[in-house]
Please model this.
Amino acid sequence: MLFECIKNGTAPNRVVSFAKEYLTARGFEEVYPNKLFHPIHGGKYLITPFPDVIFAFTAGAKSRQFQSMRMAFAHVDQPCLKIKGRADHASMGCSQLNVGIYGGMKDHTWFDRPLGIAGMVALRGEDVFAPRMVSYDSGRPLAIIPGVAIHMKREMNEGWKIDRQKEMLPVVGLEKQWNQGSFLSFLGSELEVDPSEILSYDLNLYNREEPQYLGLNKELIAAPRLDNLASVSILLESLTQSDREDGLNLIGLFNHEEVGSVSKSGADSSLLQMVLQQIFHAFTCTDDMLRASLADSFYLSLDGAHASHPNYPECADITTQAIMGQGGVLKSSASCKYASDSRMKAIMNGLAEKYDILLQEVADRNTIRGGYTLGPMVGAQLPMYGCDLGVPMWSMHSALETMAASDYDQLCQLVTAYFND
Model:
């Protein structure tokens, strides 16, 4: 499941498409944000308000006035290179693409790797307000960002600041005639349309390397996009294995977490509240009933966690560390940058103890600021109890990341127990 999610999830819309296919194959019925729908208790449903965000929920078989909710969220984006609107560039006999930096990339890890192109392309439609949106994945490596030989830059092993506009431009060929419009011509041929039909696109480059097991006992997994497709995969697996009869189980996969989540598809918006209102109204529940349900509901935020590094022990907290292979991670923060509070930590630790699941707690070292998650954003939009969890991994935001296979399994068991208990 995880490997398929990584292979197919090459752009946010591609992750959502994979999730939709996975859920539909397991009996989830699609409902639409612009239409009324009539769910039944015991039903399974999915909704995609936009191509890059998806919600899925199961309705408990028991009909009650107040439906307690167990929710869990993750994000579908990762740091990458976005192709600019006027992409064509040429230098030294090479055809290149002009790209922008999305999110907090580890720039140097993107050199000398096979890169594909994926995302959405907007084509001319019959109605100007309804362009034809097409999903695209090159399915093969189209580009590479060639590194410079150490003979030309002998100080590179001592560290150097990468010029993102100069050094991060990918090469896509050796064309002598590469001018404005060449990339659109290529894209048109890929989509079998005239280039004039292409009105816009949202395309990113992605690492084409395959996920693989490694280590003497194959206990580690190295793959691109582990942050955060490991979390996406866990939510899909756990929701489809849930059969709680009382209340709603819901997952939400948002976009744009890596750049702040302030967008129509991001968690720091009113989208979740709108979706919950639509669901509750479909069950003939009022907004007051929704607010009452929130008081008896919980949510999880799943995102990659920083594992303690064998070569950099000084980066970990002195007592509260995430050790690879010792289970999923419960994230804590004295500055409230994670949603976890003492009540939710007690609940998750209780579930782990009840079902004999490995769970460890991590906190940032006081001198190092870790990343942020969806957790506090969801809690600010919908005040309720929440908790931040994750799979510990090395080299987060690299073009290739590493985690322990057993940690994925342990966290998947925990989230499944959360949905079922």
Summary: The chain has a mean pLDDT of 94.
